[in-house]
């Protein structure tokens, strides 16, 4: 399943129920640590109104970008419609901690749960794209989604059912991504 899962960018119109998302998150959380302390939270957007509000929040600051302003308005309208038509979105926020090591552990723990969530969802024919786009990471967006003091943005999972998964890309072999530590490190 790990090798088969793909990021999905084209969803069909089948709805994604909040109950399904909650059940999958519960399962993913239990896989991580059945007695663990969840130090993150999610915000679900799955109705047309909620999706439109989220899209408006995502694109508000983007429209101010000097490169985006050079693009035809039609392009922004197409992008807004495309995002608004995605059946569901899950905004994920993790708690922050003054201790950098603990802060990193909380973030990593949240990411582990989300990876398990994606795999469990894939098993049920539910695909997603984990969005951390730099253009949406700004105070105005964080305020509009209700991010609280002491939280950090982990990403948005755009979710939906799909008709056909995209073809897989070649992966970099593990031996190309690591080296062996020796006495003489330069």
Automatic annotation (TrEMBL):
Cited SUPFAM superfamilies: FMN-dependent nitroreductase-like
Gene3D superfamilies: NADH Oxidase
Superkingdom of origin organism: Bacteria
Residue numbers spanned by region Disordered: 164-186
Biased composition (Basic and acidic residues): 164-178
Signal sequence interval, chain numbering: none
Residue ranges constituting the Nitroreductase domain according to the UniProt record: 2-161
Stored InterPro entries: NAD(P)H_nitroreductase (IPR052530), Nitroreductase (IPR029479), Nitroreductase-like (IPR000415)
Protein name as annotated: Nitroreductase family protein
């Amino acid at each position: 399943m790990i090798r088969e899962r793909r990021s999905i960018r084209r969803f069909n119109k089948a709805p994604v129920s909040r109950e399904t998302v909650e059940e999958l998150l519960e399962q993913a959380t239990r896989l991580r640590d059945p007695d663990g302390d969840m130090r993150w939270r999610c915000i679900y957007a799955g109705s047309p109104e909620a999706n439109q509000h989220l899209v408006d929040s995502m694109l508000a600051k983007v429209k101010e970008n000097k490169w985006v302003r050079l693009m035809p308005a039609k392009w922004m309208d197409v992008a807004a419609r495309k995002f608004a038509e995605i059946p569901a979105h899950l905004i994920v926020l993790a708690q922050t901690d003054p201790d950098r090591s603990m802060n990193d552990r909380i973030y990593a723990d949240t990411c582990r749960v989300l990876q398990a969530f994606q795999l469990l969802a894939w098993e049920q024919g539910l695909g997603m794209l984990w969005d951390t786009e730099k253009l949406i990471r700004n105070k105005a967006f964080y305020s509009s989604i209700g991010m609280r003091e002491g939280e950090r943005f982990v990403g948005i999972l755009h979710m939906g059912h799909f008709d056909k998964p995209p073809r897989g890309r070649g992966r970099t072999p593990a031996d190309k991504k690591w080296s062996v530590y020796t006495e003489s490190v330069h």
